[in-house]
Amino acid sequence: MPDELATNGRKSGDEALAELRDILVGPEREKIRQLQQRLDDRAGRAEEISRTLPEAIRLQSARGQKLRLALQPILEDSIRVSVQRNPEILSEALFPLISETVRKAVAAALQTMLQTLNQTLEQSVSARSFRWRWEAVRTGKSFGEIVLLRSLLYKVEQVFLIHRKSGLLLAHCEAESAVVKDADLVSGMLTAIQDFVHDSFGGKQGQDLETLRVGEHTLWIQYGPQAILAAVVRGTPPMTLKNVLQPALERICAERGAELTEFNGDVTPFQSIQKYLKACLVGQASKTKRGQSALLWLVPSALVLAVAFWLFVSIREAREWNRYVQALSREPGIVLTSAEKRGGEYFIAGLRDPLAQDPAKLLASAGLPPGKVKFAWQAYFSLQEPFGALRELDAAKKSVESRKVHFRPDRADISLEELDAVEGSAAEINALLERARRTGKPVRIEIVGHTDDSGPESRNTELSQERAKETLATLSAAGVPRERLSTRGAGTAEPVSQGTAERDRAFNRSVSFRVLPAEQ
To answer: If you placed Cys at 464, which of 144, 184, 484, 489 could pair as Cys (CB 3.0 to 4.6 Å)?
Structure first.
């Protein structure tokens, strides 16, 4: 009966305590449960963030540029990927603005040129001028426009499609009567001329070479994001020729945009765009042909020779540079991060293992002057062979050279206490010789005997030699190949420890080891 009362009493106490706990912390526990429920509800949290995110962005934008700087790389990368996937999005968005602006600019320039030409030619009186005036009246065009159309006689003889980044020829098309040279050579010369113009005149982004005239030929160049269209024109073409070249280049870039972006040297995908290149072989024939004096060729010929010589030197240097970069990238322990030409100098940056070949020594074999190449290396430890084995060999060398065998005063025999040290040295020397053999860099061990500064020098030299020979005999007995060992007595000339205290003298009564290449 007492036990039952006690039990009932405890139950009553527990129930009272539970009721008291609910009264004191019950509301807080309910709030905590609600908070946990809100945290677990991902859809609810997303809804709450969507309501506060616009206001948070507005407040952060007003306080500074941290948000813009954080979002800028993400937005730029998203736009780049979107344009790469579908270039028509950007072109369709910008077309109304750019097309209208370009059309107005071209119309204004042509109008000014035609007015000037009209004022100049209206005073001329000839049978041809009367025919042109009648055509102007009949067609409703101005006299200057008719003169421009009838006097600009030309013919597009060749068209080149060149990869903009690498400078390699993608496709080529020529007229039947054209004198065709090596298309790849022409492409390489064009790339070299563009580099020369940029290096010499400091062209900014978007400022590229557009025309190049040699004699009666003119090279017209149109630029796309990934390709260049170059047309070789004989005669004097009208500005409207751009309206033929630029659309052809745009159609090629739209049709072969992915192949241009991922171009790796294979020109097979660009064989199908010959129809666009052939459409650029336009021209206007001349009814009469006048002879030209040979003197008119002197200046262009001299210019061609000068340009050809410069191109020869530039192309040869470019090839030597490319060979050097390729050879350097194949060197173990060297990782190139950049290799470029700025002005008249070359710059190379990357990672280089301290044990790797010196890149400056490879310049002579590549034919490049050392003063034109600047290096910027960051040290790193390569995991390639044989650098791991070489580091193990270097560590073994340091370990052997750090060992010493100590002797008693005026004694050359090895004490029992030092025998363990000699046996340990023998084991390390054998391990070093084996690593050296595997790496192809054989070594030998020079045993150098030392003495303290007590006694005459003649005795010290003799004693140091005896200590070295005694150590050699002990190492040989412990299994070290005798042909890999040599001795030398240094006396007091090469003290192990500088000083005159007894502790320093004890250090100098010893034998040390030097690891030398086997051929020395």
So the answer is: 489
Q: What pTM did the predictor assign?
A: 0.35
Whether the CA torsion 121, 124, 128, 133 is positive or negative: it is positive
CATH numeric code, 387-517 = 3.30.1330.60
Tell me if 136 sits within 8 A of 146, measured CB to CB: yes
- From CA 335, how far away is CA 381, in angstroms rounded? 11
| Nearest alpha-carbon partner for 404 in 290, 496, 294, 278 | 496
Q: What are the helix and strand counts (H, E) for the chain?
A: 16, 13
The rounded distance, in Å, linking the Cα atoms of 385 and 333 is 9
Among 362, 354, 347, 361, residue whose Cα is nearest residue 378: 354
Nearest to 445 by CA among 472, 418, 464: 472
- Determine contact, residues 237/213, Cβ cutoff 8 Å: no
Residue 179, SS3? coil
Instruction: Provide the residue ranges of all domains of the chain, joining segments of one domain with +.
Output: 1-33, 152-283, 312-379, 387-517
pLDDT in tens, the chain (520 residues): 555 545 555 556 777 777 777 777 777 777 888 778 777 777 877 777 777 777 777 777 777 677 777 777 887 777 777 777 777 666 656 655 565 566 666 665 666 565 555 555 554 555 666 777 777 788 777 766 666 566 556 788 888 888 888 878 888 888 776 665 666 666 666 776 766 666 666 555 556 677 777 767 787 788 887 888 888 887 777 777 777 888 888 888 888 888 888 888 888 888 888 888 888 877 765 554 444 445 556 767 777 788 888 887 778 877 887 887 787 777 777 888 888 877 777 888 888 877 777 777 777 677 777 677 888 877 777 666 666 677 778 888 988 888 888 999 888 888 888 888 888 888 888 888 888 888 888 889 999 999 988 888 889 889 999 989 999 998 998 898 988 899 999 888 888 888 878 888 888 889 999 999 887 5
Nearest to residue 323, comparing CAs of 299, 305, 339? 339
* Alpha carbons 98 and 102: distance in angstroms, whole number: 6
CA distance 487 to 18: 91
- What fold does the segment set 312-379 form as a domain? Histidine-containing Protein; Chain: A; (3.30.1340)
Nearest to 375 by CA among 389, 357, 393, 402: 357
DSSP string computed for 220-261? EEEE-SSEEEEEEEEE---GGGHHHHHHHHHHHHHHSHHHHH
Q: For residues 164-188, b (16+ Cβ closer than 10 Å) or e, as one string?
A: beebebbbbbbbeeeeeeebeebbb
